[in-house]
Amino acid sequence: MRTVAQNAELALLLEVAGTPKPGNVDRHRDHDDLRFEHFLAGAVGARGGLDAAAAGEPLGESFRRAVEGMSEQRGGNTQFGALLLQMPLVAAAGADDRDLSPGGAAAVVESTTVADAANFYRAFEAVDVAVDDPPEEMAALDVRRGSDAVPALEDRGLTLADIMARSADRDGVAREWVEGFERTFGAAESIESGDPERPVADRAADAFLELLAAEVDTFVVTQHDRAAAERATERARAALDGDIDPEDLAEEFVAEGINPGTTADTVAAALFVALERGLEV
Amino acid sequence: MRTVAQNAELALLLEVAGTPKPGNVDRHRDHDDLRFEHFLAGAVGARGGLDAAAAGEPLGESFRRAVEGMSEQRGGNTQFGALLLQMPLVAAAGADDRDLSPGGAAAVVESTTVADAANFYRAFEAVDVAVDDPPEEMAALDVRRGSDAVPALEDRGLTLADIMARSADRDGVAREWVEGFERTFGAAESIESGDPERPVADRAADAFLELLAAEVDTFVVTQHDRAAAERATERARAALDGDIDPEDLAEEFVAEGINPGTTADTVAAALFVALERGLEV
Lengths: 281, 281
Prior knowledge:
Triphosphoribosyl-dephospho-CoA protein; about 0% strand; homodimer; triphosphoribosyl-dephospho-CoA synthase activity (chains A, B)
């Protein structure tokens, strides 16, 4: 039987394999400097940190290790958000009193410490992550400052859960941390309830479109603006309604530089939940 | 830095991602019941056995563990041959006196025991592997007998190296074991000397074609016959010479049910060697 960390790694691989996943690297599409094989290496490299999280080691340190390992390829940031979203779920699934549920994951989030927050910040030193400027009162806590922000964190006594709460209004991954992983568990159910004969990666691509059609992708907001993200969601809805072929939408998003990365992160976390609950590949 | 076992796992993933790899599952092609995602799960599942081999645990037991883990997906045999070819290389790379060279790998082969052979046989119980009928005097040692063949092995005192030597005339993986992994190291050099801007998986696909053009694939001999295998090699040579588009050859092989699996196994082992020697992804 695959271990908890193996399921997390496999989820990352199945996520990137799923196609069409408009705007993202997938089995059929590379970006210029960010290619399918970078995601393969990223998933394999993240494994040590996933093992640590499943073994109950501190969440922030596990995350930092996963990101450092993920970064050992030439594509840059492949799975930062996916790993951040998976971490509390992996910890919940790996715990002795295993509780892979929204409540169990929320309990992991609640238990995070200031040290976890510090390691979260340190993880940003391993890889360039696209983020918005923080609100002015948060400037000292800009994640791009990496470990330079740690004294400010410690002064204010902020845990990783506190940091996520402060970003939840503009970052979809942070929002999942705060809101009990509602979208993640919903997408897991969607994948699980798909045609069992349909490849898992294809069911994951379906879930991607459903998620994007339901809610704007905050990574698109960061890279472009809210209008672009709202338009991307409208287009995803059109694809879901059969008004545009998802393959054509994929070409359209690539041409426009639309990359719904947070939605992909959610699918990776959902695949992990589904695999842990027995989804067969 | 990725561990030895992580590089072996990543090599399996890069191998299946490389395209076009005429006749095999690759990033762009599935077979009906054997799909890309089965190879992803196979590579992840094999990891425990790869970890064991890198840590110096007995080779046969490590292989059996790798195959059992690999088999936890619905596609059946995805990487049996690739793992068998990787094992001595992984052990050589993981040893305290690390010697990832033809000589180092040959020394590992030489050191195998009857117990390693027994676990090799047991590995056949985890998954259906296409093999030829053995010569009559070897009937008691038919691998398809699995652990039922172990008493015969023990009676004759055959090590895993002995078993490989007895199959080298009809199995390309066994031949590599016997002949110092000559093709594997040659293909590793070919991948390493490719254009560094060209994706690693594409360079691996190039190496696949070169290998197939140079020598018949014994898996094709097993599945069809020698004439079919010789014809496949001629066609690969034509593709290499530019007389046929490799993408068209891929369609041709799929239509004919030609699946040069042993050549793919060699590429997976070659990718491992190249990654261990510093190939960047």
